[in-house]
Amino acid sequence: MSKPLLNFAVKDVLEQGCTFLDRVSDEVYARRLEGPFASSLGAHYRHVLDHFLCLTEGIRTGRVNYDQRHRNPQLESSVSYARFVTERLIDEIGGVTPDVLQQQCTVTYSVDYGDGDAGAVRSNLAREVMFCVGHAIHHYALLKLLCAGEGVNLPYEFGVAPSTLKHLEADTAGRG
Question: Tell me: the pLDDT tens digits for 26-77?
Fold first, then answer.
C-alpha cells in the first residue's frame, strides 16, 4: 500500500524544519530575542515540535492533549537535538498507515482564556496531522520573519502554505 498524502505532508514540513536548523548556529538558535517576540528561535521551533510530539502520543493512545506539551529546554537550545527529534518524528509519523490515520481520537486543547478546564472533542488522527502541519507552517512564517532580523536566510516557500504557493504559481502562469 502506498503512503498516504499526509505522511508526505509531514515529511515535507519537518524537512523544512531541518533546513531551518541547518542554517542556524546553537548561539543564534538559543539566544533570547529583543522586542515583542521576547523568546528564542529555538523556543518557537520547540513549540512546533511539541505539537507533533503530542500527536505521536495520540497515535499510540488515542488521546491527543496539546495542553500537555513537555516544553523540553534542550529542544530550545540545541540545534543537533532538535534535528534528532525532527528526524525521529519524520520516521515515526511517516510510518503511520492509512488505517491508523482514520482512527478516532479525543483531542484536548485550551482555546479560551477563562478559568475553566480545557475541552475535549472527538477527531481523527488524519485531521490532527493536518492541524499539526498547518500549525507548523504558520509558526514557520513567524520564524522566517525572526530569522530575517537575525540575518538567517530561509527558502522562499518556508512558512508559506501549500495552497498559497499553488495560487501564486497559477497566478504567475496565467500572466505569462
Answer: 999 999 998 776 799 999 999 999 999 999 999 999 999 999 999 999 999 9
Grid coordinates in use for 26?
546553537
Residues ≥6 apart with Cβ < 8 Å to 156: none
Cell of 51: 505539537
Instruction: Specify the pTM.
Output: 0.92
The answer regarding whether domain 5-175 maps to CATH 1.10.3720.10 reads: no
Of 164, 156, 152, give the one whose Cα is nearest residue 44: 152
Q: Where are the domains of the chain?
A: 5-175
